Amino acid sequence: MEGVERDEPQAADAEGSPMEWDEPANNRKSRDERVNLTTDVEKDDARKIVTGEAHYTADYSRRFPDLAHGTVVRSEVAHGFVTDIDASDAEAMDGVYAVVTPWDDVVPDTLYSSSGQSYPEPSPWDMRVLRRHVRFVGDPIAAVAAETSEIADRAARAIDVEYDEREAVFDVGAATEPDAPRLFADDEVENAQSGADYGRNLESHFEGEIGDVDAAFDRNDVRVHETEWETPYQSHCVPEPHTTIAYTDEDDRHTFITATQVPNHTRRQLAHVFDVPIRDVRVEKPRVGAGFGSKQEMAIEPIAFALHLAADRPVKLEMTRREEFYALRSRHPMDLTMRSAVTEDGTIVAMDLYARSNAGAYGTHGMTVASNVGTKALPLYPRVPNIRFEGDVVHTNLPMGAAMRGYGAPQGHFAVEAHVDEVARDLGVDPVEFKRRHAIRKGDLDDVSTILKDDDRFARRIRSCGLDECIERGMDAIGWDDVEQPDEEHLHRGVGMAMCAQGSGVAGKELGAAKLAMNEDGSFHLHVGGVDTGTGNDTMFTQIAAEVLGCRPADIVVTSSDTDITPFDYGSYASSTTYISGTAVKKAAEDAKERILYWGSKLLEEPEAHLETEDGEVYSEETGASVDLEEVGYEATYGHDEREQIMGDGHHSTDESPPPFGAQFVDVTVDEETGEFELDKLVYAADCGVAINPPLAEGQVEGGQHMSLEYATSGDLEFDDEGAPQTTGFRQYGMPRTTDHPPMETLLVETHEPTGPFGAKSIGELPTNGIPPALSNAIRDAVGVRLTSLPITPEDVKAAIERRGERT
Amino acid sequence: MHIDCTINGNERTFEVSKTDLLLDVLRRDGYTGAKRGCDTGACGMCAVQIDGEPAMSCVTPVVKVDGATIETIEGLGTQDDLHPVQQAFVDNSALQCGFCIPGMIMRSKALLEENPSPSEAEVREALSDNLCRCTGYKKIVEAVLDASERMADRGVAADGGRSSDRGDDCRCAGATGKTGPDSRGETRR
User: Fold this and answer.
1) What's the pTM?
2) Residue of A nearest to B94 (CA)
3) Which residues in chain A have Cβ-Cβ distances shorter than 8 Å to B171?
4) Which helix (H) or strand (E) holds A738?
């Protein structure tokens, strides 16, 4: 190809990360050899959940007889300065323990970021615990602690707030104009991110390029395709609202029982905000009623702590559903432009993606989410020699976007996967064949994921890729080649497909650690910093450890995430838990196993090299002699000549982040007269490497599709002209119900990722990426119109059909 | 004021205020299985049964249950002796974070008592006021259909499977290989 600046990526011996991977011998097991992996191991908290005995943060209230209940007073204006707060009526009420305002000594004035990310956070420090400069309807201004939540609510309503109101801006385009109201003065932000220009309400600007994109678009043998895309707010709708209990215990430990995905980041940030040593803060994660990224945030803990200091008693702060919708966090709305240059023979020679993200009032996860728009979807096309990706992250006086399952990838996949489908249709070729021709394969060097980085240290060598098999099997399952049309003339049926990719952890920016201790009866305690938010990670950890130790998962007791007890972990986000924390668990188990074999050797009087563990015993591969793990435990603990508690340590950090791959299929029937459409079936084929627990992995795929379906068809937040939220409950928000779900089929396509624990990659976020583009593609297939804005509604489809009619 | 009601077979008297909602009273008294998801009756996470009917406890004034019979998730099976609906949720991996599950199970139980062999569409219709964010509903619907078959096969125990005393045969799983995964829960927080 002329004008190609970029090496063909698929050569396995090319420069950069090698294909060969020095994989430990015990990491690859055939299906027959797996004992505790990929079998149906019961989720370890399942029985507690179905009996109602599983305890979430709010359920711990009964431990604290003097517990105070907190309520937050929130801004009623979209932009302005709080000039006065009159809390005298509230403070005088019976049962009110404390009212805190930005002027109180217990409320620090420190700037911080609420994003639970690595340190220093790749997000600006632009937030204060309580705010005098308010930037959206919902900004926390004051808070109350009282004997009951009813009293706290009543007191909060009795607080008078005076504002010096300022002009607000809600449109991302208008926000960057020179005369736009400015959200942040220079001294209101520390740790600003690359490309920030607060004079233009720009939190970040970034760009990156591989090859020479302008030269490729200027070629006279290419056709340029351009499409604009728009995506809305999406709410996490976490089942368990954000909840924290803050108290100081008899050992002076500032303790937070809190629903979080990031206990260690929260501990560090609390220490920063309140200027106390990290060691004096304890963050305990009880069972968490899901996070989906919303709990990768220190969203409410500082307010709870300020109330605790003021009231001098334990404080519980539990968000209402209303607050969850308008005052906490959401998926960033974006508008995107996707261009590509394609030769007549159907070769894509250049792609150019621009994303503009509405960060809302604060910059938590703003730059990093926006950068993932390109670095997750564009790597699907490593054969395209020239690729550019550029983004702007803009502040408006609306609620803040933040981390949400998929983390920018759903927006990017919508633009890329629907655009490429349209290009194929313009060329008159089959979209699936067109995609497969350009798509990523095993052996490719994925440098697109490094497009925004200064060096290519993180260019990923693709060591496992089941994408083609996902497409093949998905096509069979959806009946791609045999789509029967309905009898009614106004109904048209179509099928659409979108390829998907994600990562497994953040390359070079993760740490997981685990400790394992053997009891004298041969059972184990596993302490791990990795957080189970309901996905089943604790169960998966026991399976990995049991597979190494030769015991049963039920013989291992997991304690997950209490910063006083469990080792450090960056937390549960970025699809990192199985890959990063799981590898740490595997290493801890291997470390303990060495000592088990040492003691087994003493008991059996055979060299360690002859010994192996299985079925709860140490046995000799030479003589067949064996000894129970229980005997090993007792001998190590109570032995005559020497004694030890058998322990293992494991920690894992890596520059690798292997992508899981998937293919989303949608079968849709569209009514040409009304624009109404019905999804007949969803199929998702996923390559997550080796699935440690297939039913749990399937659950991730099904739940991911649920969120993706909502994003494609029904989820959005609405605001009035003053920026006041109109979507404040489940009744307004379009969360799909049981009756809204089409039949779903999940296919797990097994590959082996040599860098992952027993060959595993991630699966949590991948399936959130597919339905918007696959549905847009299916509607295009059915009735020939292209939907470019989410959520896709019957009115949009009808309007598009009418526009199509006008053109012809 | 006082109200009297029967909760999970036990006669109880509560001191309440007129404006109290059933969910608050239940949770204050330790019945924390019912979860606070929305406070508007829109998500089903607080569902219990009142006189056999499914009800959203977060919008039910407690004065309305004076004299009523209430069943909560705590009144079904124990970890070692699950009610068939609970067992089906476990066996079908029909749960993730679990926050919606007590409400889902109470709603499912009410459905199966009224309609022992529902079609898939009937299950979906019955559960349509109960939101789940994690599972995509597929395994939940499968679990309810599975429970329906189990209950038809076995007949429902008169006590709903709640007779055995929770924790009796619950030991920390040791290396003896004698205890199953069923005995896990007690060792965790």
Assistant:
1) 0.93
2) A699
3) none
4) none
**Which candidate, A467, A461, A434, A464, places its Cα nearest to that of A449?**
A461
Q: Do B37 and A321 touch (CB under 8 A)?
A: yes
Residues of B in contact with A735 (CB under 8 A): 131, 133
Q: Measured between beta carbons, which residues in chain B are less than 8 angstroms from residue A704?
A: 136
Q: How far does the CA of residue A702 sit from the closest CA of chain B (Å)?
A: 5
End-to-end CA distance of chain A, in Å? 37
CA distances from A134 to A83, A110, A126, A139, A717 (A): 11, 16, 12, 6, 20
Residues 6+ apart with CB under 8 A from A621: A610, A611, A612
Contact: A49, B101; criterion CB under 8 Å? yes
Label residue B155 by pLDDT band (50, 70, 90). Answer: low
The per-residue pLDDT for range A721-757, each reduced to its tens digit, is 999 999 999 999 999 999 999 999 999 999 999 999 9
Chain B residues touching residue A287 (CB < 8 angstroms): 97-98
Q: Please tell me which residue of chain A has the smallest CA distance to B136.
A: A703
CA dihedral A204, A366, A409, A788 (to 10 degrees): -80
- Give the strand pairing for B2-7 and B47-50: unpaired
Structure tokens at A292: 């989906």
CB count in 10 Å sphere of residue A88: 11
Q: Which two tokens stand for residue A417?
A: 């996967």
Of A239, A523, A695, the CB nearest to B45: A239
What does the pLDDT look like over A424-483, one tens digit per residue? 999 999 999 999 999 999 999 999 998 998 766 668 899 999 999 999 999 999 999 999
Q: Which ranges of B29-137 would DSSP assign to H, the alpha helix? A: 84-91, 101-114, 120-126
- Are the beta carbons of A557 and B133 separated by less than 8 Å? no
State the 10-residue block means of pLDDT for chain A, 808 residues long: 43 61 91 90 97 98 96 98 98 98 97 96 97 98 97 98 98 97 97 96 97 97 98 98 97 97 98 97 97 97 98 98 97 98 96 98 97 97 97 98 98 98 96 97 93 78 97 97 95 98 93 98 97 96 98 96 97 95 98 98 97 97 97 96 97 95 98 97 98 97 98 97 97 96 97 97 97 98 98 98 80
CA distance B4 to chain A (A): 23
Q: Using the beta-carbon criterion (under 8 Å), do B90 and A321 form an inter-chain contact? A: no
Count Cβ atoms within 10 A of the Cβ of residue A488 and give its class: 0-12 exposed, 13-18 middle, 19 or more buried: exposed
Query: Which residues of chain A neighbour B39 with C-beta distances below 8 Å?
Result: 320-321
Sheet holding A524-528, edge to edge: A556-560, A524-528, A512-518, A647-652
Best mutation site among B21, B96, B123, B150 for testing chain A: the one with the most A CBs within 10 Å? B96
Residue B161 has pLDDT above 60, yes or no: no
Measured distance CA(B172)–CA(A523) in Å, rounded: 9
d(CA A551, CA A35): 9
